[in-house]
Structures are given as C-alpha cells and as structure tokens.
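Q: Could you fold this chain for me?
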Amino acid sequence: MKLRQVLAGVLSALLLFVQVGIPVYAEEPKEKEPITEEEEKAASYAEEIDTNEVEGWPQGPAIYAASGIIMDMKSGTVLYAKNPDEKMYPASITKLLSVLVALNHAQLTDKVTFSEESISFLESDDANIGMNPGEELSMEDALYGMLLASANEVSYAVAENVGNQYLGGGYDAFIEEMNRTAEALGCKNSHWVNANGLHDENHYTTVYDMGLIASAVYQNEEFRKLESTLEHKIPSTNLINEERILYQNHKMLWPENYYYYEYAKAGKTGYTDQSKTTLVTMADNEDLQLAAVVLHTYGVDAYEDTQAMFEYAFNNFTKISLAEMEDTQEIESFDDAEAYIVVPNGVEFSDLEKEYIFPEEADGRHVTVAYTYEGQNVGSAGAVLSESTYMKLTEAGTETETDVVNENIQDTEQKRNPKVVLFVFLVGILFVLYIITVIALYKRKLKKRRHKKMKRR
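A: Sure. Below is the predicted structure, expressed as structure tokens.
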C-alpha cells in the first residue's frame, strides 16, 4: 500500500509540473541589484555575434552595442548581425523613416507651416531649432532641420503638413504611412507612433528593420544630397528676421573629427534616456554600399562599434554579378542588370544554393531568386525565368512543394522547442513509472497468492 501511495504522489507532482510549467522554489529568488553602465557594456561586449555561428562565415568583431548589423544596401545581404531581431527604442534615427515618407510624397519646394500642436509638446531638453506657431519653412529647409539638427518640432510639422496635403488625414495619417512603408520594405518587428523618435513604449524597431529603412532612403538622390551637407543656413522666415545655422551631428561625416570615416556618406544619430545612444551610418567604398546600425550603446562607443563593423565587412566580403554567373537558359534576365550578391572572400558561386520564390499573385514567369551560403542569405534579386524553366517548375508543383517545405521547417522548429522537449521527457518518465507500478502491483499480487497457497498447505 505504501508503494502505491508513493508512486501516486510522484505521478501527481509530475502531472502538476507538466500542467503548470512553473518550478517550485524553496525560497523566494532575491532581486537583482542594478548593474552599472560599465558592467552592462562588459556584458554586452561578451555576447555572441549571430553571424559568427554560421559555418564558414568570417568571424566578426565584438561590439558594445546591445544589437548591431551591417547590411549591403542593394542586395539586402546581412554581413554582420548581433541580436538582429531584438526590439529596441530607436530615438531620433526614427527621422530616417519620416524623411523617406516625406520624400515619397512631397516636393522640396512645398511650404511647411508650424501649428501650435507642432510646438507645444516640446520639453526643455528636446532637440529643436526654435520654430514658432505660424512660422513657415520650405520642405527642403525642414528636412535639413530634421536630418542635421534632429529638430523634433520640425519632424512633427513635416508629418502634419504632408499628412494634410498628400495623405488626407494630418499627422495621424502620416504615422500610418510610416508603418505601411516600413511593412512594405519587409520590416516585421517595428511599430511607429511618432515622427521624431521621442520615447514611447509602443515605438520600437530592430537593427534589421532599420537596415532596410536606411537602405531604402539612401537610394533617394535628394536624401543623399541633404546628407552630404555638413552645414546649412535656413534664411529668415515670415516671423523671424534672422538665419538659423544647422550643423551635421554625425561625427563620422566630419573630416576634422577624430571619428571621421572616409567611406561614410550619410547617417543619423539618436538618444533618449530609455534608448541610450542609437546610430545609423551609410558607407560606400565604390564597391559595396553598406548600412550600419547600432542600438542601445553609450556615447562614442557607437562610432567605434560602427567603424569596427565597417572594416570587417569591407575586408571580408566580395560581390558576385548575377548576370555574369547565372545560366541564361534557366534565368532569362534580371530586373536589375547590375544585380549582385555578396559572399565571404573565397566562396564560389557554385558553393551557393538558390530558391525561386513565386509571388502570391501570378505574375507570369517573374520570380525572386534567393541565394544562400550555409543557410545564410547572401542576397536576392527579381528575375524572369526562361520558358522551359518556368514550365518545368510549374508542372512539378513548385509552389505546393514550397508550402510543404515551410510546414516541415515549422514542424522541426516545434520539435526543437525546449517546452516540447521537456513535455516529451516528462511523459516518458510518467510512462516508465506507470510500467514500474504495474510490475510492482503484479509482483505483490503473486506474492499474496503464494502466501495463501502456503497457508492452505
């Protein structure tokens, strides 16, 4: 009887553990003591770099930032990544997306009028250029104010005016367009609630998503012109009879600065108490165009991290022209004749794997060709398949097979899920205990029978 009670108790405890999934502690865990800035930086510097785990991938440098990325701005290849999908607060690098939306809809000659709402939200330490309700700027001067001086009231006014004039809904419509634009670029872990980056718990992004945004805005010629300017003078306005002088805040763009980087062409700084230092930098060495993003770091560490990542990328990767390497009997043409992918030095085109991704809505023979090396994406490009290749793939049911592959990947990920593994392990233990219990009861029963027979004799 005691054995049955003990086993029943063990079974009950295990079942409770499986159902609840919460370990029982003998005592309450102690609250962690807040760590210092130096301790946080040391811990972050020691964290693993995601791309260093890819077999055959060049080993990248440690950085102080909580997350960082280097992305080729044309092919989309991620050359370096640390916590690429971790959601964090962006601060003023938000303005890159705001400028992109403004350039997509407005003209540089448009008039930006400052409302009371665009001024009244400012607090004493918020970056601004001293605009007044009723004052007017050209859109060009306003964008300089956003990019060079990181002026928060200017960002609000630009959003409000573009929303009213082009989006039919004022400031809120502009914010909605920011989210739509980010989603269209492929951003999956971002949410935007304002145009300037002032702190809000629901305003966040990732280094990967910011890499996509930086890549997109850099392709705009007007943006590159704005960012190539280190100093800009806003002339007197309808209310203020004096010019405002704006200076570029990004230290890597100033030749006289200690942190100047010769290939850096554009970028945006950011800081709030919650986000810490954030930085986006675009660089071009006339071979590769790269976007670097670091989030949640401290002061000039952002520049040192960025330079270390750039040097790693420029020294360890090579472009491969797709038009030169692909078989024309398989792929008829690429959307961009200069399309390329980026691979580690020494990797050959024959070392890569590729996948044809058909659009959700039928688009003839047009596909996206995605290339990978050891499972790591090295770029993709739009292309038109040859007639024979298209017929071969569609007859084989490529799209259905792709769905099956995706399902298999999900099944594999579920099997590897620690909770699933733990559940299977505990079920195994319960089964073993059940067998032991059955055997023990059976032996006890046999023993009783033998005992009765002995008495009868």
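A (continued): Confidence is low (pLDDT under 50) at residues 17-27, 398-416, 451-457.
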